[in-house]
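Lesson 9: reading folded outputs for more than one chain in a single document. The general rule is that every protein is listed as its sequence immediately followed by its C-alpha cells, and records are never interleaved. Here is the first one.
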Amino acid sequence: MNSVEEIKVLLHKNKLRLIQELSQSKEAMHLIRKSMHTHLLPEEKEKIKIQLLDICKSIPALAVFLLPGGALLLPLLIKLIPDILPSAFQDDPDSDDGTSL
C-alpha cells in the first residue's frame, strides 16, 4: 500500500474513533443530567467516570499537538506513554498494525 492510501486509512480510522469518543461524551452528559433528578446505577456512574478520565487524557494530547512540531512529537509521546489517549483511540480491533494517530 502506498503512503497516500495509508494516510487515507489512518484518517478514516481516526474519524471513526473521534465519532465514537463524541458519542460516549454525549452519553456521559446525558447521564450527568439524569443524575440531577435521580440516582444513577453503578454501571452508569462507572461510564461517567471513564468518560471524564478520557476527557482529562485528551487535554495533554491536544496541548502537545498544538505546539510547534507537536504533530511530530505526539506519535513519539504516544509510544512512550500509551495511556495519554482516550479509550476510543486505544482499542481498535480492526487495526492490524497498532497505529493510532
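And here is the second record, again sequence then C-alpha cells.
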Amino acid sequence: MSDESVTEESIEPQADSEPVATEVSTFRLVATLAVAGTLAGLLIVMMNQHTKPIIDKYKAEQLRKAVYEVLPGVDRYSTLYLVNEALSLTLPEGVKESEYKRIYAGYGGDGQLGGVAISRGESGFQDVVQIIFGFDPETGKLLGMKVLDSKETPGLGDKIFKDQSFVEQFFARPDTPLLGVKPGAGKGLSNEIDTITGATISSKVVIDIINHGLEIWRPVIDKGIPSVPSESADVEVTP
C-alpha cells in the first residue's frame, strides 16, 4: 500500500475567520451604571456627613461675629424665636429649630437692650443676597449692615460689601425706612443711602432687604422683647 503524499496543494485553504461581534447585554450595562451611581451617591453622602458639621460650625461662628459687628457696643446677645406671632426665648417641645424664624437681641454691659440683629435674604442681580443688619427699636435707627453671602457680579455687584463708603452709611445710624438715592442727588434727609454707581440694582437690593425685613419684624418687636435671665444658656457672650 502506497502512502498518499500530502502537498500544500492538497490542503484546502480555510476561510478567514470573521471576528465574532460581542453583544453587550443591556441588563449588564444598566446594572453597571446603577452600581456606579450608587457608589458615587454613597461617596457624596459620606463626604457631606463629614463636611456638614464643619461648614455649619463655620457659618455659626461667622454669624456670631456678624451680630456683634452690626450691633456696636453690645457684649452679649440672645436668640429670639418667632412663636405664635410673638418673640420667645424658647421653642415648643419636640420641634425643629430650623423651622422657626429668629432674630438676635443684643445687650450692653448694663443689661440694657442695645438693639436687634435681623438676618434676611432676597434675590439680587445674579443670585440671592443674604445680609444681617442691626436695628434700634427705640429710635427706629439702623445700627449697621453686613453682607453674609452674595454672588453678585465681581467688580460691580460685589461693591455692596467691598465699597467701604457704601457700607459705612449703614453704620451712620440712618433713620428707617431707608431711601436709596443716586450719589449727589440726595436732599440731605436722615434716611438717605447713596447707591453705588454701576451697581445700582445690587445696592438697592440691600436697601430693600432691610426695609422689607423691618416691615415684617417691627410689628413683632413692638409687641415686646422677652426679658433675658441674667444666667441663661441661650445667651451668647463675647470672648
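What the second record shows: The beta strands are 76-83, 86-88, 102-107, 113-123, 128-136, 141-149, 179-181, 192-194, 235-237.
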